[in-house]
Amino acid sequence: MEKIVIDGGRPLRGTIHCDGAKNAALPILIATLLAPGEHRLTNVPELADTSSTLSLLGRMGCPSLVHDDALRVDATRIAFCEAPYDVVRKMRASVLVLGPLLARCGEAKVSLPGGCAIGTRPIDQHLKGLEALGCRFELSGGYIHGIAPALKGAEIHLDMPTVTGTENILMAAVLASGTTRIHNAAREPEVTDLVRFLRTLGAKIEGDGTSTLTIEGVSRLTPASRPYSVVGDRIEAGTYLCAAAITGGDVEVTGCDPALLESTVAKLREAGCTLTVGEQSVRLQRDTPLQAFNARTEPYPGLATDMQAQLMSLACLARGTSRIEETIFENRFMHAAELTRMGADVQHTGRIATVVGVPTLQGAAVMASDLRASAALVLAGLASEGLTEVLRIYHLDRGYHDLVGKLRGVGARIARTSDAITDRSELSAALDAAA
Ligand code: EPU
Q: Which residues pair with 252 in a beta bridge?
């Protein structure tokens, strides 16, 4: 297995370009199942989760290839309506095939995703919404088996604005007869991007960006004649802005709509950074000390839970005491213990973490527990004294394309090496070779 090694303490300077958003690309790829024919997509990020999704579509009989800069998915025929355990356990987003398969094939068999490092993450709201549309479910052998002889529009009230729950129900409702209204729907930009994609197939949806989605079912969807470009990744952008902030650098992040980053930009300003917003870019400069801040994660347009870990790394080096509240997932502070191993002062009880800023962090070997926690540890490593080794980086490969190359491009001393290399001089040699 590989690890990331970082020799910290260098301010980052330059430009980093963001890829398409993972959490928009995955549902859009899965939504191709709704419309028979060939789909063309651009700005799809090259990630482990993208490969898992394409292999899942392939197993269902929908092959894909890259041609003329576009990813082509052929959803002409669906041969197999199942998402098996070996795929779902690696990538929870596989559960998104339920809605499209039930809508197009009238049946679906999907392994029930278990809990994960950040929480129990049930899918009761997905099933409640799909049942309201006329689906029936049975659980056996760890699989949910759904059948839907005919889908009929309904009024659906979600208990919380779940992102993938909204997407699953939306994808079924576009082919249901009559009108569906999803109340308390998620307003995340990734849901809006899925709505935009579905519209290019002929779906009739209103209310995107608000908490009520109204869907007028159609009898058939057809692939668009032009390629669809996935929205830029606001979480990737936010992560690189934090990298500039934590190192006291000057970095322009391009490829993402700044309007989608407002809550992160506001928090970074509170932390003492100077941010300049362009049309499709945000520049962050910092030459004064980081200041403590309070942060509370919320559904969009509030501060994204997917930015919480990265902001905690900043708080570790800020002057004063920061309070960070995680309201979306019940167990999303796994990075706190690892940051403490680097010299941070973080205490957490339940959903609240208190971070007392320290003047410096020291490099250490740390273990990544989930995708955003891994990003937080890389950020801490960029600002630490000495060498940091981040283990279990397969989490990072799920959500950040070429993180090491992009950070190196703005001056970081960072490399991927085998995790069997532990000797300090060999690690330094790996960093020199990568420079
Ligand atoms: N929830 C339920 N029942 C449900 C659905 C959700 O109780 O049926 C709860 C969850 O347990 C959680 C809360 O509702 O406490 C919100 O979860 P949500 O369903 O919105 O999360 P998700 O759809 O599973 C997506 C992203 C996550 C991101 C969250 C929150 C994708 C593929 N995943 O997950 O992304 O953190 O929304 O914005 O879109 C990541 O990229 O690192 C990541 C974890």
A: 15, 283
Q: 126 and 97 in contact (C-beta within 8 Å)?
A: no
Ligand 1 atom nearest 127 alpha carbon: 8
The radius of gyration of the chain from alpha carbons, rounded to an integer in Å, stands at 22
Residues 141-174 pLDDT 10s: 989 999 999 999 999 999 999 999 999 999 999 9
Distance, CA of 6 to CA of 428 (rounded, Å)? 9
How far is residue 1's CA from residue 359's CA, in Å, rounded to a whole number? 33
Query: Which of the listed residues 229, 257, 288 is the one where a domain comes to its end?
Result: 229
Q: Pocket around ligand 1: residues whose beta carbon is below 6 Å from it? A: 23, 26, 93, 119, 121-126, 160, 162-165, 186, 190, 305-306, 328-329, 371-372, 399
Nearest CA to ligand 1 atom 2: 122
Distances (CA, A) of 334 to 2, 262, 331, 350, 394: 21, 26, 7, 12, 16
Q: Which atom of ligand 1 is nearest to the CA of 22?
A: 41
Strand 321-325 relative to strand 143-147, pairing: unpaired
Q: What is the tens place of the pLDDT at every residue in 38-69?
A: 999 999 999 999 999 999 999 999 999 998 88
* Domains held by the chain: number: 2
Give yes or no for a cis peptide into 301 (omega within 30° of 0).
yes
Residues 115 and 33 in one domain: yes
Strand-strand pairing, 365-367 and 345-349? unpaired
Q: Are residues 212 and 311 in the same domain?
A: no
Within 10 angstroms of residue 361's Cβ, the number of other Cβ atoms is 25
What angle do helix axes 371-382 and 334-341 make, rounded to 10 degrees? 20
Phi and psi, residue 113, nearest 5°? -70, 140
Segments of the chain with pLDDT less than 70: 114-116
CA distances from 319 to 220, 274, 287 (A): 58, 17, 14
Tell whether the torsion through CA atoms of 262, 266, 268 and 269 is positive or negative.
positive
Same domain, 75 and 213: yes
Q: How many whole angstroms from 92 Cα to the centroid of ligand 1?
A: 10
The residue from 199, 229, 259 where one domain ends is: 229
pTM: 0.97
Nearest residue (by CA) to ligand 1, atom 37, is 163
Q: Give the domain CATH number at 296.
A: 3.65.10.10
